[in-house]
């Protein structure tokens, strides 16, 4: 059962990043209070990075027990570990280097100069095993039930590295796939699949700017995940679309009446 998406529309992308950061901090604190440990899946892209920068700048970040946070990634560019194009490198620059995380709880996806070398399928399988190890019996042994899974939405409706009509978006068995020939550079990537994304309790999709307006409108109009991967990204208890006004501009009003500020 896919929860009906809930839309929150902010004035602009700066306010969207601030509000999403406040929301994420609160969510982590609540999850830690309820279960001891919280888990978050990070995304690459400008909006995901802006959110992390806003968390770093927030005085409320000290309310989080960073040593009890598991961090995972939804996708990664398959380049060497120190490459500035890596989502993990960018997240480290924006936030991770500034908070006292437990390194054993930080799970970057493999890099192209790792133990599997350039074999992106083997690297993807390695990450799938790492996720399976962290999953409990209640998670059906495949991936943990992440508290929050963040996804930037691309102008073609891609999420993570699942692109419209690419093989990755059709994957129904594996939790992690290697991606070749991605339309967004670099072409070789690792990505969680839709079944893995849908194991998250909450999925938050981020989109800002006029260049995302068509993608957001399309994904919310129900074209199916093959044509619009973002429409196949939902959580077990909540699916939140965090938007700025420009990105929300073309959503058919009869589908989602504006309900936010
Ligand atoms: O590795 C990546 O590039 C991503 O994880 C990708 O899925 C990204 O999140 C979207 O393309 C949105 O990116 P923007 O927020 O920059 O538009």
Automatic annotation (TrEMBL):
It holds the Pfam family Glucosamine_iso. InterPro entries: 6-phosphogluconolactonase_DevB (IPR005900), 6PGL (IPR039104), Glc/Gal-6P_isomerase (IPR006148), NagB/RpiA_transferase-like (IPR037171). The keyword Acetylation does not apply. Transmembrane segments: none annotated. Pathway: Carbohydrate degradation; pentose phosphate pathway; D-ribulose 5-phosphate from D-glucose 6-phosphate (oxidative stage): step 2/3. Its EC number is 3.1.1.31. It comes from the Bacteria. Keywords: Hydrolase. Residues 12-241 form the Glucosamine/galactosamine-6-phosphate isomerase domain. It catalyses: 6-phospho-D-glucono-1,5-lactone + H2O = 6-phospho-D-gluconate + H(+). NCBIfam families: pgl. Belongs to the glucosamine/galactosamine-6-phosphate isomerase family. 6-phosphogluconolactonase subfamily. Hydrolysis of 6-phosphogluconolactone to 6-phosphogluconate. This is 6-phosphogluconolactonase. It comes from Kitasatospora nipponensis.
